[in-house]
Amino acid sequence: MHAMLRYASRAVVGVGASTLATTAFADGKEPPLSYRPPFVAPQSTNAAWVQSMKEGKAMMGCAVNSSSSLVAEICAATGFDFLLIDAQHSAVNPETLRHLLQACHAGGAKAFVRVGGHNDRVGIQQACDLGADGVLVPCVRTKADVELAVSCCKYPMSGRGAVGGTRSVFVNLRPQLPGGFGKLFDYVHNGNPTVVVAVQIETKDALENVEEICSVDGLDIAFIGPGDLAVDMGLGRECGVPACWGDPRFGAAVGKVAAACEASGVIGGFWNSGLEGTIPQGFRFFVVDDDVCAMQETLAKNLVGFQEKRQAALAGLAK
């Protein structure tokens, strides 16, 4: 059997080589060294991706809390514009993070990582070095918090956020893979625009300081976390959930963030699937689903259907 396979392989290779030679040299040109198009690092398109939101496109993403690279690849391949890998609330170590980022890019989506906060320098560094397209920084309260977050993402070289940048330089980062940014110092010089920086407006202090926060050089997205924001404003305790999100004071808070984003040129983001109400306000970056919740809801729905079929089948036998 093995001999037959080897013979078949040689025959196929022989035919293929002859055909290629005939085709390649028919016009007198030598065949190319590779028949693949060159690899393009996904991070290289990030500046244009951000600009497209400023020009009106609305991007939709799915949060990944399962820590599963298989689930992440499925979510990405389904068609979401980006995935939010949640290292704040999920079991994600650096090796798992690398696998999740690779799975996300394999599925064709942008990859964002929600880190531990503006003081999580190691988490931000790992996300950037392992090839994340951007980071989402939770729990900020002041302009200084956001400046620190941006600083951790940016080299003190060129581009927005470079002044005060403190990102550590190292070789063999994932964005420097062949076809990426090449040599170390090419990436250090040109890498800043490829890291998208988003912060969460999810505290009462951040809401009060949102105009100053949006003025920070190098910030791309101000993202509303509705659950924590409503709770920190006291509306969760006073009104309950989900009634707090219908309170006029929460609506005013959303309007304040939208106005600050518009005035500063920062993209407004929202963990919200109610796009019909938020897109007209100017928001363009949305987390609209979550892998664990989606699996739970779909499995529960499917199970009810199977239970009903089982019940009907058993009832038929009893007649």
Automatic annotation (TrEMBL):
<dbReference type="InterPro" id="IPR050251">
    <property type="entry name" value="HpcH-HpaI_aldolase"/>
</dbReference>
<keyword id="KW-0456">Lyase</keyword>
<dbReference type="Pfam" id="PF03328">
    <property type="entry name" value="HpcH_HpaI"/>
</dbReference>
<dbReference type="InterPro" id="IPR040442">
    <property type="entry name" value="Pyrv_kinase-like_dom_sf"/>
</dbReference>
<comment type="similarity">
    <text>Belongs to the HpcH/HpaI aldolase family.</text>
</comment>
<dbReference type="InterPro" id="IPR005000">
    <property type="entry name" value="Aldolase/citrate-lyase_domain"/>
</dbReference>
<feature type="domain" description="HpcH/HpaI aldolase/citrate lyase">
    <location>
        <begin position="62"/>
        <end position="269"/>
    </location>
</feature>
<dbReference type="InterPro" id="IPR015813">
    <property type="entry name" value="Pyrv/PenolPyrv_kinase-like_dom"/>
</dbReference>
<keyword id="KW-0479">Metal-binding</keyword>
<protein>
    <recommendedName>
        <fullName>HpcH/HpaI aldolase/citrate lyase domain-containing protein</fullName>
    </recommendedName>
</protein>
